[in-house]
Amino acid sequence: MNNGSNIIASLVDVRRSFTQGDVTIDVLRGVNLQIRAGELVALLGPSGTGKSTLLQALGLLEGGFTGSIKIDGVETRDLNPDEHTEIRREKLGFVYQFHHLLPDFNALENVTLPQLIAGAAPEEAVERGTALLSALGLSERLEHRPSKLSGGEQQRVAVARALANKPRLVLADEPTGNLDEHTADIVLSEFMGLVREQGTAAVVATHNERLARKMDRIVRLHDGILTEG
Ligand SMILES: Nc1ncnc2c1ncn2[C@@H]1O[C@H](COP(=O)(O)OP(=O)(O)OP(=O)(O)O)[C@@H](O)[C@H]1O
Questions:
Q1: Which of 14, 73, 93, 229 could serve as 162's disulfide partner, Cβ 3.0–4.6 Å?
Q2: b/e for 41-75, b at 16 or more Cβ within 10 A?
Q3: What is the C-alpha radius of gyration for the chain, rounded to an integer number of angstroms?
């Protein structure tokens, strides 16, 4: 279901502080961000500025935020953890720097599992998983376990998994950060191509300006504030 609006995610005046002993760090100091459906947004900023924290806000992965966090028009702040989980399952996909694939499952199973959990019929899940992995050049690797795949291949499986349930928004935290530059370029280009083909929006945290420039929009986090361009 979608709310008819073109905005898939919206943050208004989002703040987050962390306190460790006597020290409080204001990591997000009033972040505003609107992501349109199908839009690819690069999130840049030096290490430790709060890119992961911002993705956690969008992914409804942590508490402790103030401000408004809307996903597909729904204000999430007052929802309970089960409702957050449901929104994550229905609308969001995640890719991390390290793939977090299940080691005892093969590539195809890693992509079909989230679909089965979401209630897809097994044949449907296998068909979609095979199509996604094939689009990423892994048609010959469906039955390989993660340990038998290269780093780039593992990240491709993680990308396919993130898209398995047709999310409206994919949140990617340094998705190619542990790959060499050449492989990172290829995997990120494939990721962007697939995301565009699926009409999914994405926010991609990265240190890589060059790759960021290939996306629709760049936002930068600096001193807890987000700026455009
Ligand atoms: N759970 C936590 N408890 C205390 N401090 C935290 C916590 N999570 C993050 N921080 C602090 O918040 C700041 C932002 O961290 P975050 O991981 O969001 O940055 P980042 O921009 O993603 O960094 P990197 O590019 O290195 O991954 C850091 O100073 C970090 O130490």
A1: 93
A2: bbbbbeeebbbbbbbbbbbbeeeebebebbbbeee
A3: 17
1 occurs within a structural domain: no
Query: Residue 148 is part of which domain span?
Result: 7-228
Locate the ligand 1 atom nearest the alpha carbon of residue 207 and give its number: 25
Q: What CA–CA distance (Å, rounded) separates 219 from 43? A: 5
Burial of 169 (C-beta count, 10 Å sphere; 0-12/13-18/19+): buried
Which numbered atom of ligand 1 lies nearest the CA of 174?
27
Please state the ipTM of this predicted complex.
0.95
Q: CATH number, domain at 111? A: 3.40.50.300
The H helix count followed by the E strand count for the chain is 7, 10
Residue 206: CB within 6 Å of ligand 1?
A: no
CB of 63 closer than 6 A to ligand 1?
no
Q: Report the Cα 58 to chain-centroid distance in Å.
A: 9
Asked if 187 and 211 count as a contact pair (C-beta separation under 8 A), the reply is no
pTM for the whole thing?
A: 0.92
Residue-wise pLDDT tens digits, 120-155: 999 999 999 999 999 999 999 999 999 999 999 999
pLDDT tens digits, one per residue of 146-195: 999 999 999 999 999 999 999 999 999 988 888 888 888 888 888 999 99
Q: How many domains does the chain have?
A: 1
